[in-house]
Write a structure and sequence with these properties.
CATH superfamily of the largest domain in chain B: Aldehyde oxidase/xanthine dehydrogenase, molybdopterin binding domain
Number of strands of chain A: 5
CATH class of the largest domain in chain A: Alpha Beta
Shape of chain A: elongated
Radius of gyration of chain A: 16 Å
Shape of chain B: globular
Distance between the termini of chain A: 56 Å
Structural class of chain B: alpha+beta
Number of domains of chain A: 2
Distance between the termini of chain B: 71 Å
Number of strands of chain B: 33
CATH architecture of the largest domain in chain B: 2-Layer Sandwich
Helix content of chain B: 25-40%
CATH topology of the largest domain in chain A: Ubiquitin-like (UB roll)
Largest sheet of chain B: 7 strands, mixed
Number of helices of chain B: 17
CATH architecture of the largest domain in chain A: Roll
Strand order of the largest sheet of chain B: 3-7-1-14-11-12-13
Oligomer: heterodimer
């Protein structure tokens, strides 16, 4: 059994999804059908944030979104965060500040933090901690992640 | 010459400098291929049927309905295992697929390959297994007296360590019983991989692991294949922390791929992952410390029981560590440590960061606080008074010949000023975003803990790492099978190569079992020393060959030549050759690096069993809501003995990340096992620290005393942060509440309804 075909707009490109099962999550479709494995699969029940993507500008756990319900919305994944002109400020800051270890949580964190900085260009430590409290990281203890957020905020002009 | 090269440095970062990770950009861009990201156009999906019972006889397995499911290509059981029916890291005692009995909940019974994950799930559900459930053995204290649940018996290993004069008694004695719950490594990248059948009858396996060659040998045994026909390549590893030292889906994937002649991919769900890898051993520990009135420890007695679960894994080495380091980094002239690790029908336990030392550190540090209390002595002073130093003996009778800056670690951490202020935002109180805490009920506590363990493999194990260096056209290509699991070895490999060869361009080939020997395991804080040492030596040999070649060619003394910044120069002047030009004809060297040999422990747990030791201290400040039993860890401060810092950024990352796992064990992380069944196999119910749970980690000092024998003097740094952090946090909660709290994780009920309270 599969759903009627539907179209997903991901990172500015339209993808027809023709043969998905009705219960397939957006994460599954992105990873296994659209060749976009950057969003990660650590818990698949909305606890770890590794699969975080933007749907119409809002951060969501793509593992909790039925793929077909995302039709007609603008979806941005980690693959769409780094454009043709290179890495985003947040991505660069992650590398420079040592916020990457195994890297499995990294795509989800970068999407979440990008969204945070859009609404709060110069967040306090507590604001950052709250904003990323839905993104589990098992390697870093979050210290270098916080550094990366502040570095990115500075570089994008949010603070001095 | 190395020092001169450092002083002449102008180019790419080398030893001792922050260096961006070479895999950093693909990881932030989302293009780094983890083992769950692999795809092949012809691939099938694999899945596993697992036992729902912690202990049962298997009367029959009927796969007929599963084979009939549309899209199913293979359903295999123990009858289809081509080679050895069992595998194991130290003892081959674990069935690839359970034949006649299952010994833990989640033990694999059958495997399936099908066109889609849905078809896999339907087929797994359609396999009919007739079980006769048995009463599981779940109490480790009863294991040695119970009927054996495995042909190898229920005692995996006992260390009966007897050290010094056994008649010594202290004027002051303190006694305590302690318990540590089962912790999960909780790496984020689930077990996953892909096996691809090869034309030559062999198999290519792409998998996330800590030790490619050990996996290769076990897989080849189980497949009945020549190891040369089993080729493993490291796929992107989403964290490890010990949980990937044992096989999980490796043999299953290969069996399915060889049977179907198709590539097969498998990815565990999080629930399956909790059943699919070993955990940190739960521990029950009794201690009695004896001291003189002046605070000198004169004797330590201890009984340790670790629950190894159904299969041995690395339990034998874990109990050795727990016993050898049971008394902590202190001078203890007399000891009797009776340590046993036993087999039960609980989930199998094995390696996790800190490996046996985490459990005993929690207990010995609680004992040190009790002793300080009984003596009326400051707890930090007591630790300093007894701190190990070079030349001292361990419980094993081994004399410390390397560095042991225990007093410096303690002093710098204890003296470091705290930056902790009182919570202003309710979110910073215990209970956090739930905003449940009443500030009136919040009390603050502070405490201190020290810990240590061995680094590198011990007890006479032939521990080695092979690496090769190929230098051509100014580019150094390094081959090593060292598993990068997130710790940053790929960065260090480049730094070491640049340091020794003066080159900028370093290529690290993918880690695999092809074309290079074993690098050993990425565990025991050993890869910086072992594979770092192998690369340093291989590059050193290439440098010697290069300089000798140029010396002959230009008629100069090789000792007069220096490689630096992409050039070879003569110190006497007059000669300067570009490295690209000098290496138009390639130079290659391959080395097998070994650390100083160790010896087995004798029947009394005595012997020079270890190579080197690393020490750390943590000071914890906590706020506790005593009404609700909630804890907020406010600040952690740490000092660590590191030998030498090779990469400051990565060092900080290890100290912060390791401390987070220690905080988790102290206040929230436990695999809850009831009647042999895991009750919380998900990230909804097994809690790991979030950014709101983790405090800032203040690094008071990185103690740099170059360790003899280690490359650049650098000790491994990965494990100590997870050892003393748990003990410090638990002690701080004791300090805040006045409760005994002899168990971690400390649960809200332990604070609100302490044992013995009305």
């Amino acid at each position: 059994m599969s759903t009627d075909p539907f179209v997903l707009e991901v990172n500015g490109q339209s993808h027809e999804v023709a043969d998905a099962h009705p219960g397939e999550s957006l994460l599954r479709v992105l990873r296994e059908r659209l060749g976009l494995p950057g969003s990660k699969n650590a818990c698949e029940e909305g606890e770890c944030g590794s699969c975080t993507v933007l749907v119409d500008g809002q951060t969501v756990c793509s593992c909790l979104v039925l793929a077909s319900t995302a039709a007609g919305r603008k979806i941005t994944t980690i693959e769409g965060i780094s454009g043709d002109d290179g890495l985003s400020h947040v991505q660069e800051a992650f590398v420079d500040a040592g916020a990457v270890q195994c890297g499995f949580c990294t795509p989800g964190l970068i999407v979440s933090i990008g969204s945070l900085l859009e609404s709060d260009p110069d967040p306090s430590d507590l604001a950052v901690r709250e904003a990323i409290s839905g993104n589990l990281c098992r390697c870093t203890g979050y210290g270098r992640v916080l550094e990366a957020v502040h570095l990115a905020a500075t570089r994008r002009g949010g603070s001095t | 010459m190395t020092d001169l090269a450092i002083s002449k440095r102008t180019a790419a970062p080398r030893i001792g400098e922050d260096t961006p990770r070479p895999d950093g950009v693909p990881k932030v861009a989302g293009t780094f291929a983890f083992s769950s990201d692999l795809h092949h156009d012809r691939m099938l999906w694999g899945g596993t049927l697992r036992s729902p019972h912690p202990s049962a006889r298997i009367r029959s397995v009927d796969i007929s309905a599963a084979v009939a499911v549309t899209g199913v290509h293979a359903v295999l059981t123990h009858e289809d295992v081509p080679g050895s029916l069992v595998y194991g890291l130290e003892h081959r005692d674990q069935p690839v697929l359970a034949p006649d009995v299952v010994r833990y909940e989640g033990e694999p019974v059958a495997i399936v390959a099908a066109d889609s994950p849905e078809a896999v799930r339907m087929a797994v559900d359609a396999i009919a297994v007739d079980y006769e459930p048995l009463d599981p053995l779940v109490d480790p204290d009863l294991a040695e007296r119970a009927d054996p649940i495995h042909p190898d018996g229920n005692l995996v290993r006992r260390i009966n360590l007897i050290h010094g004069d056994q008649d010594v008694r202290g004027e002051v004695q303190v006694e305590g019983t302690y318990e540590v719950g089962m912790q999960d490594q909780a790496f984020l990248g689930p077990e996953s991989g892909m096996a691809v059948p090869a034309e030559d009858g062999g198999i290519d396996l792409y998998v996330a692991t800590q030790w490619l060659h050990s996996d290769r040998d076990q897989v080849a045994d189980c497949l009945g294949l020549d190891p040369a026909l089993v080729r493993l390549t490291l796929s992107g590893v989403g964290g490890a922390f010990g949980a990937r030292e044992d096989l999980s889906l490796h043999v299953h994937l290969c069996m399915l791929a060889l049977h179907t002649r198709r590539p097969v991919k498998m990815v565990y769900s999080r629930e399956e992952s909790f059943h699919g890898h070993v955990h940190r051993h739960p521990a029950r520990m009794w201690f009695r410390h004896h001291a003189d009135r002046d605070g000198s420890i004169v004797r330590v007695e201890s009984r340790l029981v670790l629950d190894g679960g159904a299969y041995a894994s690395s339990s034998g080495a874990v109990i050795a560590n727990a016993a050898c380091f049971a008394a902590g980094p202190y001078r203890v002239p007399s000891a009797h440590i009776d340590g046993a690790v036993v087999r039960t029908n609980n989930p199998p336990c094995g390696a996790m960061r800190g490996f046996g030392a985490v459990q005993t550190c929690f207990a010995h540090e609680a004992q040190m606080d009790r002793l300080a209390d009984a003596l009326g002595m400051d707890p930090v002073e007591l630790r300093l008074h007894n701190a190990l130093a070079p030349g001292d003996e361990l419980l094993t009778g081994q004399t410390i010949t390397g560095t042991a800056p225990v007093a410096e670690v303690i002093r710098t951490c204890a003296d470091h000023p705290s930056g902790a202020s009182m919570a202003v935002d309710p979110m910073e109180l215990p209970g956090g975003a739930g905003r449940t805490a009443d500030p009136e009920h919040v009390v603050r506590g502070e405490a201190f803990a020290v810990g240590f363990k061995n680094i590198l493999f011990s007890e006479g194990f032939d521990d080695f790492s092979e690496a090769s260096c190929h230098l051509a056209d100014g580019v150094a290509t390094i081959t090593s099978a060292c598993a990068e699991v997130g710790q940053g070895f790929v960065t260090l490999a480049q730094q070491i190569t640049r340091e020794v060869l003066g080159v900028d361009d370093v290529v690290l080939l993918p880690a695999s079992t092809v074309g290079i020997g074993s690098a050993g395991s990425t565990s025991a804080s050993r890869q910086t020393w072992m594979s770092g040492g192998a690369i340093q030596e291989a590059c050193g040999q290439v440098r010697v060959q290069l300089l000798e070649r140029l010396a002959v060619k230009h008629g100069v003394d090789a000792d007069d030549l220096v490689v630096a910044d992409g050039r070879v120069v003569s110190m006497a002047g007059g000669l300067e050759i570009d490295l690209v030009e000098a290496t138009a004809e390639p130079i290659e060297a391959s080395v097998v690096f070994r650390h100083a040999p160790t010896l087995p422990l004798d029947e009394n747990g005595q012997g020079d069993a270890h190579v080197s030791f690393a020490f750390s201290a943590h000071r914890a400040i906590v706020d506790v809501d005593v009404e609700l039993g909630l804890v907020k860890v406010v600040e952690l401060t740490t000092s660590q003995d590191v030998g030498r810092v090779l990469n400051p950024l990565q060092t900080v990352g290890q100290l912060e990340g390791g401390a987070a796992q220690g905080v988790g064990l102290a206040v929230m992380e436990e695999v809850l096992v009831q009647g042999g069944r895991i009750r919380n196999a998900s990230f909804t119910d097994y809690l790991v620290p979030t950014a709101l749970d983790m405090p800032p980690v203040e690094i008071a000092a990185l103690i740099e005393e170059a360790e003899p024998g280690a490359p650049f003097g650098a000790k491994g740094i990965g494990e100590p942060p997870s050892i003393s952090s748990t003990a410090a946090v638990a002690a701080a909660i004791r300090n805040a509440t006045g409760l005994d709290l002899p168990r971690v994780p400390v649960r809200p009920t332990d604070i609100v309804f302490p044992e013995g309270a009305a």
